[in-house]
Design goal:
two-stranded antiparallel sheet; 20 helices; alpha/beta; Rossmann fold
């Protein structure tokens, strides 16, 4: 697209240093249909003629402050469904009664033996990943009895809430999850009188741990009310401790800042790959998860490998951006960045092809853009890399627990009032998915034992969240999570459907073994949807820690294989069994793959920006949008 047209649309910022984002260029949003919500001229949020609908929305928005944005109706209906089907299943009831009796007998036998012999082996072991009872003190009587009682009750409750005949698939996910959350409240680890580790701390500190814990609680409550960051996170300042790879913002519009990173010292006088790299992070996270501390910075690593790297930094939306949808994020984000990169790195022969990399929802957005580009004959993508990114949402992990019509309608009412989904609401939902690690264990450590955890760069980034615009998140839930339109060929871009099978650029897809947000088997489904060459890599770790794995990590493992366009499909379980594991970070094989895909002759290291196209540096990296809270 010509740069003059980009400027006319407000998609290119001025090269002047004072061109800060003080004025937001409005996005052209189609006029609402008759009967749609009117917009308040004073506050910007929509209002409706006085009716029951506005009352319902306000009530739901108020309720959401106390329910972590979870619909009470969805939970109530799920348990009602479970109770009615269980009440009409006498066989299941008989099995549960038999299991309860057997577990009680096992516990009584264990209690008698453990009271005499402290080395009595436990009758049940914790689930994999449950580290609450790993301390040796939990093997000592009577604490071992507390732990065994809880684990047996946990196992029985799981049997009671799963396998109920006739229960709907959605409710079959909700009931055991909620039941587990409620049972975890009563875990012996959360009680200072039944937790031997806490009692040891009481003895060691003379009870002062409770005073320290109360001080921690008061400090956290004050910071929560005032909107300040938690204690210890200030040790990682953006631009000082993290996001320090040298570069500049070379392009800015109302939604993104595009950062171009300077070539490393070793490359500044040499050559770099002709094809630049564009990183598209998820809009629910700050981009610098890929530019954390220098030893954990994927961006710094790519620059050192001789790539010209660009990264999108999304704006933190407020109420004024409530009507920005998925298409605005595609058009003003991915496509605008590609236009700017083409102008900066292009030659008389035209813009170079780009290695595009999308992380999480940024990968989903990149896939939508790539499918639309393939449909329209746009060949600017050399390759496409998807990091923990899903294109099919039928098995989208534990996030699908509460994704049904009732929950989506409730969440839309919460967002409707403010115009966005707040970071605290998202954080609460993510914490519930791993409540043992992210809620209860933290409360025990900080409030019962009075100890603050050591803050890491990843923890500091995780606390620096972003908001989601009302319209975009609503479209994401309806069109992707509920409808699965992208995978099934119903997703439309500019009025016409797109197909993932149209993408011909080679794909490198990365899944993480313990991902609860984008399960690796769901990420693996790209093999069913695309007809191009696909390299799939599975690394250990979770959704974030698995991706942020510095190049010098001998403790990491990964599996990788390549599939040609005409090769037969291999199901994920067979793939896992037949693909050998390798030691080290996945960064190296990915960079090697990019090297092999970069078939053009190297070029001289590029300067940052382009004075010719009025895309010179606007401000140093990490820019201004990433600092918005």
């Amino acid at each position: 697209m010509p740069m003059a047209q980009l400027k006319a649309e407000g998609r290119v910022a001025s090269n002047r240093s004072d061109a800060a984002p003080a004025t937001v260029v409005p996005v052209a949003i189609p006029a609402p249909p008759p009967g749609a919500a009117m917009r308040s001229p004073a506050y910007g949020f929509p209002y409706l003629p006085f009716s029951g609908e506005i009352i319902d929305r306000l009530v739901h928005a108020w309720q959401g402050r106390f329910t972590l944005s979870i619909s009470p109706a969805a939970v109530t209906l799920a348990f009602a469904d479970w109770a009615m089907h269980l009440g009409n299943a006498p066989g299941k009831q008989a099995v549960l009664a038999d299991k309860a009796m057997r577990k009680l007998v096992r516990l009584m036998v264990y209690a008698g033996a453990a009271a005499v012999d402290r080395d009595t082996p436990p009758c049940i072991e914790p689930l994999p990943g449950d580290r609450r009872f790993s301390h040796p003190d939990w093997r000592q009587f009577p604490y071992s009895l507390y732990a065994q009682s809880f684990l047996l009750a946990q196992q029985w409750l799981h049997n009671a809430t799963t396998g109920v005949p006739g229960l709907s698939q959605a409710n079959a996910r909700i009931v055991p999850f909620v039941a587990r959350q409620l049972l975890d409240v009563a875990a012996p680890t959360n009680n200072p009188f039944t937790n031997p580790e806490t009692l040891r701390t009481v003895i060691a500190t003379g009870g002062m741990n409770f005073a320290f814990g109360m001080a921690n609680w008061a400090e956290d409550a004050l910071r929560l009310m005032t909107g300040q960051r938690a204690k210890g996170f200030d040790a990682f300042q953006v631009g000082r401790d993290v996001a320090v790879t040298p570069g500049s913002v070379v392009f800015r519009n109302e939604l993104i800042e595009l950062i171009q990173y300077a070539p490393s010292t070793a490359r500044s006088a040499g050559s770099v790959h002709a094809e630049p790299v564009l990183i598209v992070p998820a809009w629910i996270m700050k981009y610098y998860i890929l530019d954390l501390s220098p030893e954990n910075s994927l961006i710094r690593y790519l620059v050192g490998r001789g790539f010209t790297v660009f990264a999108i930094s999304w704006r933190n939306p407020g109420p004024e951006m409530r009507d920005y949808g998925l298409d605005e994020y595609r058009r003003l984000g991915v496509m605008a960045a590609l236009d700017a990169i083409g102008a900066i790195c292009g030659t008389e022969e035209g813009p170079p092809p780009v290695h595009a990399c999308g992380y999480c929802l940024g990968g989903t957005l990149l896939t939508i853009a790539a499918a639309a580009m393939a449909r329209d004959g746009d060949r600017r993508l050399k390759t496409m890399t998807l990091l923990a990114a899903q294109t099919d949402f039928t098995e989208a992990g534990e996030l699908m627990l509460f994704i049904n019509e009732s929950q989506v309608a409730y969440l839309e009412d919460i967002m409707w009032e403010a115009g966005y989904l707040d970071t605290t609401q998202m954080a609460g939902a993510f914490q519930m998915l791993r409540s043992n690690d992210l809620i209860w264990s933290q409360m025990v450590q900080q409030y019962l034992r009075g100890r603050r955890p050591e803050v890491t760069d990843l923890m500091a980034w995780n606390a620096d969240g972003t908001r989601l615009p009302y319209r975009m998140h609503s479209e994401y839930m309806h069109r992707l999570l509920l409808g699965n339109d992208l995978s099934e060929g119903r997703y439309k871009v500019e009025g016409r459907p797109v197909a993932l099978s149209d993408i011909r650029a080679p794909i490198f897809a990365v899944g993480t073994r313990r991902d609860h947000v984008a399960p690796w088997r769901s990420v693996y489904k790209i093999n069913l949807q695309s007809d191009t060459a696909i390299t799939f890599l599975l690394t250990d770790g979770g959704h974030n820690a698995g991706i942020v794995a510095g190049p010098d990590r001998p403790d990491r493992q990964y599996r990788m294989s390549e599939r040609g366009p005409n090769d037969r499909y291999v199901d994920p379980d067979l793939w896992l069994d037949s693909t050998p594991a390798a030691t080290g970070s996945w960064w190296r094989p990915w960079a090697d793959w990019l090297d092999r895909q970069s078939d053009a002759e190297p070029v001289a290291a590029r300067p940052v920006g382009s004075v010719k196209h009025d895309l010179g540096p606007l401000c140093p990296a990490p820019g201004q949008y990433v600092l918005e809270r």
